[in-house]
Amino acid sequence: MQKQNKDQKEQLKNKITALFDLLSELYGTERLLLKAGKLDILDILESEEIEDQLIALQKIVFDHPMLDKVPEEFSKRLELVNELEDNLVENLSKKLVKENLEKKINKKLELRHQEYIKEIKEEIIKEESQEDTVDNPANLKKYIELESLEEKGLNVSATNLLRPQSLEEIVGQERGIKALLAKLVSPYPQHIIIHGPPGVGKTTAARLVLNMAKKMKETPFHTDSKFVEVDATTLRWDPREVTNPLLGSVHDPIYQGAKGKLAQEGIPEPKLGLVTKAHGGVLFIDEIGELDPILQNKLLKVLEDKRVNFDSSYYDPDDENVPQYIRKLFKDGAPADFILIGATTRSPQDLNPALRSRTTSIFFEPLTKDDIIKIVNQAVSKLDIKVSDGVAELISQYTIQGREAVNILMDAYNLSLYYKKDKISIEEVLEAVKLSRLVAINKKEASHESQVGRVLGLGVSGFLGSVLEVEAIAFPANKEGKGNLRFNQTAGSMTQDSIFNAASVIRKVTGKDIKDYDIHINIVGGGQVDGPSAGTAISVAIISALQDIPVRQDMAITGEISLHGKVKPVGGVIEKTYGAYQSGVKEVLIPVDNKVSLNNMKIKVSQVTDIHEVLDKMLDG
Q1: Residue of 498, 533, 544, 583 with catalytic role
Q2: Which pTM does this prediction carry?
Q3: Counting Cβ atoms within 10 Å, is residue 63 exposed (0-12), middle (13-18) or buried (19+)?
Q4: By three-state DSSP, how is residue 154 classified?
Q5: Which of 73, 202, 518, 582 lies in the 20 to 30 Å Cα band around 166?
Q6: Could you confirm whether domain 451-618 is CATH 3.40.30.10?
Q7: Residue tagged active-site, from 183, 369, 374, 576
Q8: Domain range 369-435, CATH architecture
Q9: Among this protein's residues, is 576 annotated catalytic?
Q10: What are the residue boundaries of the Lon proteolytic domain, all occurrences included (predicted)?
Q11: How many CA within 13 A on the CB side of residue 442?
């Protein structure tokens, strides 16, 4: 029993000694003695008695001078020691945290102090060199205004929401997209010109195909390859090369835009253009046919060299003050290895021959009524809105552009919100097209009833085909051989040549001389015919009028007529066929020499050789 008490006493004494060590670490020796003096415990602090030491400990730890008693029982004393230990550990941990925080604060203050000293030095240097401070209060105010504008963006755009996110969402361009994939997703991608009407997805398709190509190992594109887009109609450049956003330019020190320090030292600075930004990726030029011819030739030179070279009479290669990057640009030029994709609404023959020879052509087709309906329904699904039956069909009657169809839908949707309706009705669509002053474009020129002296010809403007109504009426002349021939002059000189050719063919086929008749020929609507493609239609119209034989009105014809009655090939057959389909025509007659792929057409296409074959098909009687 006596031994047990001795062990307990020794254990308690060791703990008390450890606690005094913690106190010394927490306060330090001098502060500990000072605190003991204030609590009037210096005499018992040096005592060897456990009771005195516990009294001193609890007074110091709890900072209370009236704690003069301690428990008699060992267990109670042990609890007191543990409580004192917990309190000391907590205070010590707080001290460590505080010290670490103070160290960090002091370090930050020292760093800020150094930065502040540095800023003061820079400011003094600028003042001594009589240079204006870049970030003066006025400039900082403008910067803050810009930052506040950035935070106030609407972040809402129907165009971004409805833009196709995959190639499958692009409607009506399966053949064009397949050709684009074949030429771009390849180990050796080609420069491409995409021909097609506006609003059919040329830009979107090019961007999505590049995204696909970046994921393919066999292509030279990388994951960070850029798609740099520019509109050729907005590119402005100076022949003196002072400014050229496409290829890059040199800011000579005497011109506006040169940096102050470089200008003072007389060092010209090259400015990189879009061709360098597109390095390793795709440069997409919309409306490339509108690009300045001289700039086109310069662009072709860059395509060959895969590099842009800079020159300036102010550049001195021996000047030691020339920065290294400027020296490299003048010596080696800037890299510009990219794939060019141009988009245009022009026909290939209307483009620069040099540009055509260095690129391959891809054709995007005009959208049909069914395509427009599909695009509208796709937009309705993305917007998650309700529409009445017939809305998509009605919109398809007013446009053949996917972008415009979506705009009409959005106008109608906004009107429905204005009228507090839960879905878009026919009335909102009609009001939307009325406000936009749109007229129906898909007129049904075709019909099932045959008609004398009226033939449906086909014309094309750009990539948009249309039906031309060719009318003819004939009366016996008052005097034999004194007949008159009239036609609208606005149709163009080629129409006159076609009529003269038709006159010879008519005499050969019918045996009648048109000089014995007064004949009036009219191209309805005053449409201008630039080529000879209406020759066959004019011949059929005159023959129908002379012989009083009706012509089928669900059939259209295109083709030049020769003096021997042969139907010669013409251009724009695919576009003309689309136009015929839009107008409700059931069958199209084209020259046999127009060997074009029309397998995907939703209309019957027949090839004819001569006027006799045409008359057999078109005359109803």
Answers
A1: 533
A2: 0.67
A3: exposed
A4: coil
A5: 582
A6: no
A7: 576
A8: Orthogonal Bundle (1.10)
A9: yes
A10: 449-621
A11: 19
